[in-house]
Structure formats: structure tokens, C-alpha cells
Amino acid sequence: MLLNQFLILGAVLFCIGVYGVLARKNAVMVLMSIELMLNAVNINMVAFGFQHEVVSGQVFALFIIAVAAAEVGVGLAIVLLLYRNQTSIDVEDFDLMKG
Amino acid sequence: MWMLENAFLIPLIPALSFAVILFFGKRFIGADRVHVIGITAVSLIWVLSLVAAFQWTQRVEHPSPDAIAQISADGHGDDHADDGDDHADDGDDHADDGDDHAGAAMDSESGHGGGHSSVLISPVVTTYSKWWSNGGVDFAVGTHVDGLTVLLLVVVASISLLVHIYSTEYVKGDRRYVHYYAFLSLFTAAMLFFVMAQNIVQLVVGWELVGVCSFGLIGHWWEEKPNTDAALKAFLTNRVGDIGLLVGMIVLWGTFGTFSIDGINAAISASPGTQHLALLVAACCLMAAVASKSGQFPLHTWLPDAMAGPTPVSALIHAATMVVAGVYMIARLYPVFYDGFSIGTSSINLMALIGGFTALMGAGLAFAQWDIKKVLAYSTVSQLGYMVMALGVGAWTAAIFHLFTHAFFKACLFLGAGSVSHAAHHTFDMRKMGGLKKFMPQTYWTFVIATLALSGIFPFAGFWSKDEILLGAKVGQQNGYPLMLIFGCAVAFMTAAYMTRVVWYTFHGEYRGHGHPHESPKVMTVPLWILAGMAVVGGAFNLPGPVLEPFGLEGLAHRVQTYAEPSVYLSGLGLSHPDPSLSMALIGLGLALSGIIVTYLYFWRKMGPHGLTERNKYAKAGYTFLENKYYLDYLYNDIIVASIKKPIANGANWFNQNVLDKAVNTAGESARDSGRWIYKWIDQGAIDGSVNAAARGADASGEGLRTIQSGKVQNYGQLLFGAAAVLAIVFVIVI
Amino acid sequence: MVAQNIAFGIISGIVVFSALRMVTTRNIVHSALFLVAVLAGLSGQYVLLAAEFVATTQVLVYIGAVMVLFLFGIMLTKAPIGKSMEMTGTQWPIAAGVALMLGAVILYSLIDQFGSDRLTEGGKIYRTADVGDEVFSTYIIPFEAISVLLLAALIGAIVLARKD
Predict the structure, then answer these.
(1) Residue C96: closest CA among chain B residues belongs to which residue?
(2) Closest residue of C to A14, CA-based?
(3) Which of B104, B200, B213, B306 is 20 to 30 A off residue C159, Cα-Cα?
């Protein structure tokens, strides 16, 4: 097996995730796309760990999973709050971030 | 030597007390009884620190072979890096720093003829298993106990104990009694942790911890806005200095590759002058930290405001212990400053200058204050400046000795002020006091004793320590510091004068307040008397030899010097001590006495130009200048902060309004205008259509640019990722 | 090695297909289910890389917990379930362009850098016990920090989402 197999798989998933974050309208789907990006990174971690025969790769993959879990929790809470205040979770409806 | 090796117990006990008070205080012990825990813990550490001090004196007087720093020339290769042993490694690890410089020390000593200790005792460094390791760098945790440490231990524990006892009455029935005692315990723990830090990382941790406690206690009554403001001011001013502290510590680590204080000091004193530039940078950075924590010019402005906290806290933190953290750090890392500022060879340097100037400035400010605590606060600023100046001129022992004596009489003054305020309806305004002598004789007499000690009147404690500082400034190491001597003498005179003013306004004349003042209860006066007693006899700990000779007690001379100084690295620098000088002592005493007499004549006998500040415009201008604290607060708040804060906000707004919007608008408009111009003037027939198209295109591009700032997260995300991709492409192509 | 390559190929195909469908489907619940497929596939890839504990955790945490959270999120925000024309924004061409540009540069760099590096064969395999040892010795402080982070996230999520 080539190292690049895994790295390219990760890269492709990452780009799909980027597309999802940028193109999807539903905030929950944006969050799901972020999960996709995080998983793409995880593949790289584990693949490089395997390549260099160190356990740190796996450990960091685990840490990333933990942080991702925290991120989803807070992210969904924020989405819920948005929904309650604006009755919409379409990210295109939110355009307050301008001067 | 058990206590020295297990010194970690000393900060641990108040830390536990903090936890117990905080978590169980209200529920299980009762909110009004939590002081029992605090007092028990602090009494315990008071005993332990006395034991530690005693064991240290034993170590100095009957040194075991492994305690003596060997002065033979072997084992140069030892780099003193901390190897994270699990056990006590006192002695051999740093036994060889003295080397060739010890000889130089002996030579210079004979030149001055002072009592330089000939036996060099290495500090007891205990390293526990490494704390954590990161990127191949090990961070150890441990204790570093030597004469300086035990001296600070005794000072902190004693004053903390007395303040704990005093507070039971002073803050009785306070709405946050539990919180108050918890913070007192935490502060004591943090300070003790700080003074026995084994490495500079611990030093930083302790430094920040005492800062947090100071913040919490200044803002103890946070319901009132000025108190929270003062707490924030103290905290933020200290943050300014902390940047210096961190940078300085990083420079030290980068230069010597070790965090161990012992290792750094030993490395410098083993080869002085080789790292001068790095040490100069480190010393300047650390000086900023000292300026913030120890209230040196120009970062002293938080200290007087810190008097918003409860008075016992002012006594403990803002007079006796925490504010000397900066002075302590200089003393602890003295080789860094000694080498960095060339203290031995120069006759003026940054540290001496800052210290001397602060001493003078603080004393000047103390004249124009009406709040008794603020007078004492400026007096503290001034005295801390004195200590820093002493360190700046190379008078290490004198500075430490002054730290020791000052802690007691300044705590006494503050607690005295607290007692006065307790009696006189919680005011600190001296204009509402006066004539309190007959109401509260105990407070009066202790206050007077402490005043005499602070003024430096023979034979009180302050006299001996101040005399040593003046002497140190006069003689210096290789050159004298004439400017510092002048500063010191002026401050001696001014100190006596402004303290006499305080005594006059507070205790003499007619009572100007309302109600009936009364003497404070015993639980407050007994600590006062103990502190006053220390203010009387504190000087005995470092009496010069000639004074004791007639009594046949020469052996007891220079106790502080004997016990605090004989650490290896100081002798590696070749520190020397000037001979005791009668003339210098007489000059210092004369200045202090004349300060008292002039003020006495002015107030008691109504002599001299009264009302000068009302009549003479120059005097009035000077008084206003002093009353406004040299306008430093205005400089910081209105000029520096405002000039930074407002332009940034305005600038961002202006940039947004004028540059971004206008660029988009003008791009569109000018293109449109030019299109119209062309349409109108050049050709309406042949190229009509293309001109129209161009104008429309420009219009559309203006509109397009406008839409970039859409406020939608996804658009920004597109720009972000797109820009990142473009940058990545550029990198790939270029590299 | 051939078997592993075949397995990699099949799983990768599923993963990439599911990922693409996930970001293009018009049904949000389908999207979530495609994400499950992606995560499960990645779990398989971890097994191929001899990372058994990560694979298990992936299934437990992601498929077990995070996906449930997502489904709850979809439910609570009353997103239109079923086909919806407007799940993709109007600016999707820009997004696609950005993603493609990013993908191109990453792929080019990867091929340029790691061209035909082979994975170490017969190297040391780290079992669950080894990972556990490492987490609780070298990485104990990050581990504790993560615990605190999770607690903070827990409290933060409750504070944000509760009604009052």
C-alpha cells in the first residue's frame, strides 16, 4: 500500500468537506461538513503514525475525535439558539457580519 | 536539616487551609469561625519557618561537608542543569561555582575590610520528579532554600499571622468573611511558594498567584465602583510588567538552557561577563516586572489605589510582603542584574536610577496626600525604591535587611492606620482625624514607634538598615554612587518629615471628626505592639561589629549578612561590604532628626511659612503637581490609553467608511462618470454602443465589489479558503 | 497486500461516493445517513492502518453519539425533511471552484512530496494497550485538558440551548 493512497483519500474528503461548508444552506449540514473535514485530517494522522511507527498519530486522532465531539455539541447548541431566535437555520439568512 | 529539605510543607499548609476554608468553611465550620482554620494554618507555618530558619543558621554555623561549596578548582564541566532527580541533591551539584572568583572575592574583601563570610554555603535545592516535559524540555518542580528564603519565610509567616489575628476584629461581620480568609490563606501559600521557587517557571507561577490574590483582595468590597477599578488597575498594570517578566525569563532560559535558579546564578557567577548582552536584555525586561510588582516608577500608580482593599490586606500585601516580590526577585536572580547592569563597575545604572528616583518621587507624593493610607502607600513606594536602589548599588545585604525591617514597621503603621479608622468611623481622611492621642494611646504609641523606625531614628530598626543602604551607595562596589547617595539622603529627610506630618494630623491637635473615637480592642492592639516591638529591636539582627564590641558581643554582629549571604553565587560575583562608618550614620540620623524637627516646628510651634501654597503661586503649582501625582495617571489613562484606543477604533471605522466603501463607490462612480463623459463629449455615434457597455461594465464591477461585504459567513469562508488556496499555489510554485 | 489494496479501493469508493452524495443530496436526513456511511468507511480504513482503537472509537463516538446529536439537531430545528430544492445555496459554483482549487494544490503537493512512498510493512503494530499506555503517560496532561474541554463544552451547550 502506498502512503499516498490514504493521504489522497484524506485530501479528497477534505475538499468535499470544504465544498459542503461553503455551499450548503442548512447550518446543520455545514456542521456535518466540518465533521467530514476533521475526519479527513484524522486519516492523515493515523497514516503518518503508521508510516513512522509511532503511537502519537493514533493518540492525536483520538484527541481530535474528542474535540470534534465537543465542537458538535456546542455547534448544535448555537444552531438551536439561532433557530429559536430567528426561526431559520439557513445560513444565507444571516448577514449581520458586515459594517 | 529535615525542614530545609521538606520545605514544600510550608506553602502546602496554607494552600490546604485555603481549600478547606473555601469548600467547607461556610457549610461545616460556620462563616464566622473560618478564621480558626486560617490562624491555625498560619501559626503552624510560622513555627515551621522558624524551625527552617534555625536549621539554616545551624547549616551555616556547623556546615556539613556537603553543604560547603568547594573552592578547589575541579569539575568545571558541570553545567548545573537540573537533572530532575527525585531526591534531595543539595551540595555537590553546584559545589564548584566559586572557583577562581572566590579568590577575587577574598581580595576585594580585604580591600574593604568588611565582614565577608569566608564559608560559602550552598542552598538546599530539592527537586521533585519533573512536573511535565514538553518538546524535550523538562520542567521540574522543587524548593530552593537558602538564607534569603528563610528570611522571607519568617517575615511572611509572622506578618501573615499577625494580620490574620488582627483581621478577626477588623473585618468582623463582613459580608464575605469566608472569602476574605480563603484569599488570605491563598495569598500566604502563593507568597511562600514564590519565595522557595526552585526554578524560574515556579517563580512566574508564584508571581501570578500573588497577583491574583492581590486583585481579589483589593476588590474585596466590589460593590463600590472605585474598588473594582482599583483592583482592575492593579491587575492590568501588573500585566504590563508581566510581559517583561516572561520575556526576561525566556531570555534567561534561552541563554543558559536551564530553568533552575541555582543553575542560572551559578552559570553567571562561574564566568561573569561572558553573556553580558543577553543578561542586559534579561535584566531590563525583569526590571519592568519589578517596576510593576514593587511599585517602581513608572508603573507605581496602582499601589496607592490598591489601598481600596481592607486595611489588614494593605498591611500584608501592599506594604510588607507581596510588593517586595520584585525586590526579592532581584535578590534571588542577583547575578543576572549584577552582570547585566554592570553594578560592580558602574557608578550609575538603570536599577539604581529607577530605585533612587522612585524613592524620591514617592516621598514627595506622600506630602500632598490627605488619606492616611495613601501617605503610607507612597511611603511604601518610596521605601521599595530604596531597596531597589540598594540592590542597584550592590548593597545586597542592606537591601534584604531593609526589606526585613521595613516589613515590620510598615505593617505596624498600616495596622495602626486601620485601628485609627476602625475607631474614627471608617474614614481614612486625616482632615477628619486629629487629637486621637488621648482616645487611643496604644495605637498612638505603636504608631509613633513605627514612625521613628521608618524615619531612621537611632536605635530603631530603620536606622540600621537605612544606614547600611546609604553606606552602600557611598562606597559602592568599585565606584561609589554619588547620585544615589544624594537621593538617599534627601529621602531620609523627607521620610521623617512626611511621617511627622501624618502623626500631627492624626493624633495631635483637635479632633475634627464626629462621634466618639475609642481605643481598638486587644485583638488589634496586641499585634500592633508585637510589630512595634520588632520595629524597635529589628535592627539588632544586623548590627555592625563596632557597636557590639564594647559589650563583648562581636560574635552577634551582622547576623543577617552571615546567614543570608553566604550563598555560592554571590561570592562568585565578588560582593563586598563597606566598613561601618560613624560619620555616615551621623549624617543619616541628622537628616532624619532635622526632618522631624522642621516638621515639628512647622506644625506644633506654627513656625515657618504657613499658607505658602495659597499665597505663592510657585508653591501652589508645586503642590498641585504633587497632589495630582505628577499627572502620571492622566498620562496613562487619558493620553496613552486614549490615544491608542480611540485612534484604533476610529481608524478602523474610518478605513471602513472612507477607504473600503469609497474605493468601491469611487470605482463605480468614476467609471460611470468617465463613461458618461466619453459618451457625452467624444462620440455619440460610432462607438456609442461600446462606450455604453464599458460604462455598464464598470457599474457592474462596482456593484460586484460591493457585494463582497455581504455579511454572510459563507462568502467570507469562500474568500478565506480561496485565498488560502491561492497562497498555497504561490508557495508551491515558488518553492 | 493485494487483499488490503482491494479493500482500500472498495472502501474508498464507498466513502468518496457517500461524501459527494452527502454534500449534494437534497434530503437532509439522507445527508446525515451518507455521513454515517463515510464515517463507517473511515473506520474501516483505520483498521487497514492497524489502528484498532481509533476504529472502535470512531464507531462508538461518531456513529453512536455524534450522529444521534445531528439527527436531534435536524429534528429540533424542524428542517424540511424530504426533498427540498434549496439545500444548496446560490453560490455553489464559487464554492466548488474554491474546493477544486484547494484540492488541486493539495493533490499536486502530495504527489510531488510522497510520490510512491510505501507504507512500512511489518512495522510495529500499536494495540489498544499501547495507546492506553501512551495516553496515560506521555499525554496525560493533554488528556486531562480534553476532559476539562468536554466538561466546558457540556456546560456551554446546556447554557446556550436551554430555554429561559
Answers:
(1) B718
(2) C103
(3) B213
> Beta strand pairing status for B137-145 and B124-134?
antiparallel
Residue B1 and residue B65 in contact, taking contact as beta carbons nearer than 8 Å: no
* Position B17, amino acid: S
Render pLDDT for C143-158 as a digit per residue (tens, 0 to 9): 999 999 999 999 998 8
CATH 1.20.1530.20 is held by the domain A3-87: no
Range of weakest confidence among B115-119, B304-308, C23-27: B115-119
Residue B131 three-state SS: strand
Q: Which of A30, A43, A62 should one mutate to test binding to chain C, selecting the residue with the greatest count of C CBs within 10 A?
A: A62
Q: Would you say B718 and A22 are in contact if contact means Cβ atoms under 8 Å apart?
A: yes
To the nearest whole Å, the CA of A45 is away from the closest chain C CA by 10
- Residue A94 in 3-state DSSP? coil
Length in residues, chain A: 99
Instruction: For residue B548, give every residue at least 6 positions away whose Cβ sits within 8 Å of its Cβ, in sequence order, or none.
Output: B554, B556, B557
**Taking the domain C2-83, which CATH number applies?**
1.20.120.1200
Give Rg (Cα) of chain B: 31
The pLDDT value recorded for residue B84 is 39
Chain A residue numbers with beta carbons less than 8 Å from the beta carbon of B659 are: none
A&C contacts, CB < 8 Å: 252
C95's enclosing H/E stretch is helix C92-114
Q: Measure the CA–CA gap between B213 and B220, rounded to whole angstroms.
A: 10
Residue B573 C-alpha from the chain's centroid: 24
Contact of C38 with chain A, judged by CB distance below 8 Å, is answered with yes
To the nearest 10 degrees (0 to 180), the angle between helices A3-23 and B713-734 is: 150
Q: What is the largest CA-CA distance in chain C?
A: 59
Whether cis (ω within 30° of 0) applies to the bond prior to B609 is no
- C-alpha B733/C-alpha B423 separation (Å) is 80
Nearest to B295 by CA among B349, B355, B352, B338: B355
Instruction: Tell me the residue type at B298.
Output: P
- Which helix (H) or strand (E) is A5 found in, with range? helix A3-23
Q: Which pLDDT score is estimated for A8?
A: 93
Across C39-68, average pLDDT: 91
> Residue B249: which of B211, B288, B285 has the closest Cα?
B285
Distance of CA B201 to the CA centre of its chain: 17
- Reduced to 3 states (helix: H, G, I; strand: E, B; else coil), residue B709 is coil
Q: Hey, which residues does B144 pair with through a beta bridge?
A: B125
CA distance B38 to B179: 12
In the block, residue with C-alpha cell 503518518: A48
Confidence of residue B97 (pLDDT cuts 50, 70, 90): very low
Beta bridge partners of B124: B145
